[in-house]
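User: Please write out a complete single-protein record containing the residue sequence and its fold in C-alpha cell form, without commentary.

AI:
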Amino acid sequence: MKPLILALSFLTRLPMPRVAADEADFAAAIRLYPVAGLVIGAVVAGAGWAGGHIDPWAGALAALVAWVWITGALHLDGLADLSDGLGAAHGDRTRLLAVMADPHIGSFGVVALVIQLLAKLVLLHGLPATAWPILALIPAAARIGPLVWARFLPPLREGGLGALVSRAVRPFDMVAWIVAVLAIGCVYPPLAMTPILALSLLTWFRRKLGGVTGDVHGAGIELTETGLLIVTLAYWAS
C-alpha cells in the first residue's frame, strides 16, 4: 500500500496520507506509475462523461480541466521545459540542460503548452460517448513509457528523478506492463499502439538528447497521451 500512496502522492494532487519512505519504497512506487495513471484516467473519464451530458464541448473541457488539475500540470511542466531546452540549445547539450533547469518558462515552452492543451481539447471533443472507457486507460498506458525509457537511456543528471527511475525499473516491470497493455489492446485496439509510441519516443530522445531527465519523462507522458488520443479518434472514425 505504501508504494501506491507514494505513486499517487507524486503523480496526482489527490490528498494522500503522509508516509515515511526510503529509496526502496520510492523505487516500488515508480513501478506502480501505470496504476496511478489508471486513477488519473478514471477521474478524467468521469469528468468528461459528466460534462458530456451538457454538451460535447463541455465534456471535453471538463475532461481537460480534470486532467490538468489531478496531475497538477506536472508533465505539462516537463513538456514546456523540454521545448525550451530544445529550442534554445541548438545541439549544445550543456546549454539544453541549463535551460531545462531554469524555473522560468520561455516562448518555446509557452507555444508547446498551448498546442498540447488545444490538441487534447479538440481530440477529447472528437471522442464518441462510447470511448470514455478507453480514455480511462490512456493515462495508465502512457505511464508505461518511463519504464521503457529508463531501461534503455542513461540519466542526464545524477541524483535527479531520471536517475532514480533508472535505478528503480527492473526488466520484469517493463515487460509485464507491456504484456498487460497489449492484452488490454485485444479489447481496446488503440492501446496496442503504446509500445510503438514508447519506442518511437525512445529513439527520438536518444537522437536529440542522449538520455532522460524527470522533465523528459513528463514530456514523454504528455506526448504519448496525445498520440493515444489521436489513434483512438482515428480508430473510432474508421
